[in-house]
Amino acid sequence: MKTFDLSPLYRSFIGFDHLASMMDAAARSDKSSGYPPYNIELIAEDKYRITLAVAGFSEEELTLGIENNTLTVTGEKPQTQETKDEKRFIYKGISERNFERKFQLSDHIKVSGADIDNGLLHIELYREVPEALKPRTIPIGSKTKQIESE
């Protein structure tokens, strides 16, 4: 496993102490099997789309959830008699196994919707930055005016 020395970043970035822990968590959770395959697209400046290949899964067998800035996509097939199914197939190359795929979302990223089409699950996301966090200019000599307005 590779380790990164982030100490030069801490000299100029204030309040990003959690960055190292997030990178460690991502490195630990990246040991997944790679199933199902997915794409992450930048649609517009503040709009994203995650597309997962979920062939063989219906809407009822898929679950999406968000907790602590983590988007979790779960696919669960109902339990069947595997011995009967295995006897039907001469070769089974399409995997329909259960899965759980997690995506770490940045602050202020919201999920606007999800849709399944032709075996692809599309999850639409957007960034909504609160007004208080948007860049603003502070006029010089406005110390007393600013305190009065707060």
Automatic annotation (TrEMBL):
Pfam families hit by this protein: HSP20
InterPro entries per record: A-crystallin/Hsp20_dom, ACD_IbpA/B, HSP20-like_chaperone
Xref: Gene3D superfamilies: 2.60.40.790
Lyase listed as a keyword: no
Alphabetized UniProt keyword annotations: Stress response
SUPFAM superfamilies, A to Z: HSP20-like chaperones
RNA-binding as UniProt keyword: no
Positions of the SHSP domain: 29-143
PANTHER family named among the record's database cross-references: PTHR47062, SMALL HEAT SHOCK PROTEIN IBPA (PTHR47062:SF1)
Family: Belongs to the small heat shock protein (HSP20) family.
The protein's name: Heat-shock protein
Protein species of origin: Catenovulum maritimum
Lineage: Bacteria, Pseudomonadati, Pseudomonadota, Gammaproteobacteria, Alteromonadales
